[in-house]
Amino acid sequence: MRAARFCRGVLLALAVALAGFGAPRTVPGICIVELQGEPGVERNVRRAVAEVRRAMEGRRPAVRRGQRDWIRRSGLNDRAILTTMDTIFNAVVVRVSPAERARLAGLPGVIGVYPVQEHVPTMDRAVVLHGVRAAWERMPAEARGGAGQKIGIIDSGIELTHPAFQDPDLRMPPGFPKVAREEDREFTTNKIIVARNY
Q: Which of 94, 143, 160, 166 is deepest in the core (most CB within 10 A)?
């Protein structure tokens, strides 16, 4: 029961992490079959990373044996088995028909059968995704919207040549660009006015 709650929590966290993606598309004929029995990391989540790793590696053989046994008893042929999961989720990924999916859900040892969904990034349409146009229209003076505002972004890297970071008509504020070292100046544009390359 705790394993099921943990796995559902993982799935919810993944759903939140994918919030920047468009509506998922269910992949026809492929589903994930969650099995009873704790996955490799379930009972060790609060331990130190090294201890979790040791415990996880120790648990995986038993998880894999259980999966092989379930696959043998499931009546599925080898072509239906796409892969298995044994670290934070004890599951077998299979390609089956809807009728077969219903049959698998009723087999002993199965907690649930979930459709596989494909998420397509929508961040290439950030202006639409964030409702920028609607927010802009609410500004009292469109021509001056954002005047004097600076936005700080800490990132592992950005594409300086992206059109979002280019505006030849924009003037840099006095005293900018600011850089940690002179060689970091190459990472600035008239819209990226502070840069520190770590």
A: 94
